[in-house]
Specification:
The structure is a single chain. Strand 1 and strand 2 form a beta hairpin. The chain has a two-stranded antiparallel sheet. The protein has one domain. Helices cover 41% and strands 22% of the residues. By secondary structure, it is α+β, with helices and mostly antiparallel strands.
Length: 64
């Protein structure tokens, strides 16, 4: 992963985390794990998927 991609991941995580913390569905867990191809997998779990805001849809996707 190049430096620009890492910065973009950080920017998205910070923006999405801020959105989540101000959401009524703020009971959640976020995990970040390295993938064999050098990217990262991001997983998010909420108390109820019906409460999932749009920011979680972006976080739940794998980030190359």
């Amino acid at each position: 992963m190049d430096l620009q991609a890492a910065r973009e991941i950080k920017r998205r995580l910070l923006a999405d985390t801020q959105a989540l913390l101000t959401s009524p569905a703020a009971t959640f867990a976020v995990g970040l794990a390295p993938r064999p191809d050098g990217g990262y997998a991001i997983a998010v779990r909420l108390r109820d998927d019906a409460d999932r805001p749009a920011a979680l849809d972006r976080l739940a996707a794998e980030v190359p």
